[in-house]
Amino acid sequence: FFRHYFYLTGTKFILALQVLSYVAQIERENTKQRQAEGIKAAKEKGVRFGRPQLPYPENFEEIYLCYKEKQISKRECARRLSTNHTTFSNWVNRYELKKE
């Protein structure tokens, strides 16, 4: 009895599919909105997102000063600090922002 009652074909099937699709779309929108509200509330509380920042190496300031005086290149600084030039650039930017 139930199998025959729920067997959908043609127009009934398409209509049921459209209703389910609409419900799924509304749920996605609600989830996205709740997520955005949660992120906003967390940021207002001061929660930091992403990976933690790497600390400066002990000899960073010494090498930074050489770099600023154009004695050594950015890549050479990174090599001396055992890191890559991108990380060194990030450290320089962060250090200069902190100094201001």
Describe this structure in words.
The chain is mostly helical. The protein has five helices and no strands. Helix 4 crosses helix 5 (85-99). The termini are far apart.
Q: Which structural class do you get from the secondary structure elements? A: mainly alpha
Distance between the termini: 77 Å
Order of helices and strands: HHHHH
- The chain-level mean pLDDT equals 89
Number of E-type strands = 0
**What is the approximate shape?**
elongated
What percentage of amino acids are in beta strands?
under 5%
What percent of residues adopt helix (DSSP H or I)?
over 70%
Indicate how many domains the architecture comprises. 2
Radius of gyration: 28 Å
Number of separate helices: 5
Largest pleated sheet: none
Return residue spans where pLDDT drops below 50 for at least 5 consecutive residues: none
InterPro entries: Resolv_N, Resolvase-like_N_sf
Protein name: Recombinase family protein
Domain Resolvase/invertase-type recombinase catalytic: 1-46
GO molecular function: DNA binding; DNA strand exchange activity
Break the fold down into its secondary structure elements and pairings.
Elements: H1 2-6, H2 10-45, H3 60-68, H4 74-80, H5 85-99
